[in-house]
């Protein structure tokens, strides 16, 4: 995973930018205080970490990728950037007031150990906010029509919501609520399902490069064939019928918020 993101990290910021709406939702769920210290685990190049810091909040960014952290340090030298993982942060016990984890849960090697570690470093009553997707939600991605093997591989990596809740409970973190997110038309952070309403996005190599599913879970032949089929369906207008057939009420992604007991 580290090597993968050292590769993805090159030009990552060309397509992966902090989305204003998603950031405001993170901010609302976390409800940070100016005197607190917070952790962005799996911070990548620090897009969202930087947004918190701009508003006057003290953040630590931790990521296992040297390339990602290199870009993060160029972006903002006032933030503490550290190499580490959710399983091993290297931080002191009861040292942070809250944690955000944005599209990183599926990269954790062991979610039980990760939540135990995050609970260890969280202060009592500390908040954790996770932005992720579930396998059930990914069943509603029309991308499966064109890249079926890639979507299957992606779903396998996503923990079930009940497993997330179980791991949190074992670590002493109480699940407070889940809030679904439906991808909008003006999304600035071009992650996997960013093209829900704009299929043409996936023809851009830079967009695909910044998405781990395309970068490391898809084979070239399926991507090439899928793009040809997608182009054909866009030209004929069939894509609208396909997109409509995948509509559902589960949401495309999910905010999961919890609190250390």
Q: How would you describe the overall organization of this protein?
A:
With 261 residues, the protein is an alpha/beta fold. It has one domain: Vaccinia Virus protein VP39 (Rossmann fold, 3-Layer(aba) Sandwich). Helix content is 41%, strand content 19%. The protein contains 12 helices and 7 strands. The chain has helices spanning 2-8, 20-30, 47-54, 66-75, 111-121, 135-138, 148-157, 161-171, 205-209, 212-217, 220-236, 238-245; strands at residues 37-41, 58-63, 80-83, 96-102, 122-132, 173-181, 253-260. α4 (66-75) links the parallel β2 and β3.
Fourth CATH level, the homologous superfamily = Vaccinia Virus protein VP39
Low-confidence residue ranges: none
Query: Mind telling me which CATH architecture this is?
Result: 3-Layer(aba) Sandwich
Q: Supply Rg.
A: 18 Å
Global structural class: alpha/beta
Order of helices and strands: HHEHEHEEHEHHHEHHHHE
With strands numbered from the N-terminus, the spatial order across the biggest sheet is: 3-2-1-4-5-7-6
State the total count of DSSP E strands: 7
Mean pLDDT: 94
Give the proportion of residues in helices: 40-55%
CATH topology: Rossmann fold
What is the number of independent domains?
1
Strand content: 15-25%
CATH class: Alpha Beta
What best-fitting shape do the alpha-carbon axes yield? globular
Number of helices: 12
Largest sheet: 7 strands, mixed
- The N- to C-terminal Cα distance equals 31 Å
């Amino acid at each position: 995973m580290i090597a993968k993101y050292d590769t993805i990290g090159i030009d990552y910021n060309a397509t992966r930018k902090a989305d204003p709406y998603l950031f405001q939702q993170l901010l609302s769920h976390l409800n940070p205080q100016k005197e607190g210290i917070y952790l962005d685990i799996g911070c990548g190049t620090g897009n969202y970490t930087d947004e918190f810091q701009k508003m006057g909040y003290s953040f630590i960014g931790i990521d296992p990728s040297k390339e990602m952290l290199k870009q993060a340090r160029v972006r903002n030298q006032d933030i503490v950037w550290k190499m580490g993982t959710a399983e091993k942060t290297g931080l002191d016990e009861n040292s942070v007031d809250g944690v955000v984890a944005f599209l990183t849960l599926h990269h954790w090697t062991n979610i039980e150990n990760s939540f135990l570690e995050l609970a260890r470093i969280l202060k009592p009553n500390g908040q954790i906010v996770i932005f992720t997707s579930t396998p059930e939600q990914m069943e509603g991605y029309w991308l499966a029509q064109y890249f079926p093997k890639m979507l299957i591989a992606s779903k396998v990596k996503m923990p079930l919501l009940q497993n997330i809740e179980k791991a949190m409970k074992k670590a002493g973190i109480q699940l407070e609520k889940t809030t679904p997110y439906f991808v909008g038309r003006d999304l600035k952070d071009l992650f996997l399902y960013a093209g829900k309403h704009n299929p043409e996005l996936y023809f851009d190599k830079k967009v695909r490069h910044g998405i781990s599913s395309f970068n490391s879970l898809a084979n070239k032949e399926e991507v090439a064939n899928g793009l040809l089929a997608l182009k054909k369906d866009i030209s004929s207008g069939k894509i609208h019928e396909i997109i409509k057939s995948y509509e559902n009420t589960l949401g495309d992604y999910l905010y999961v918020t919890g609190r250390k007991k």
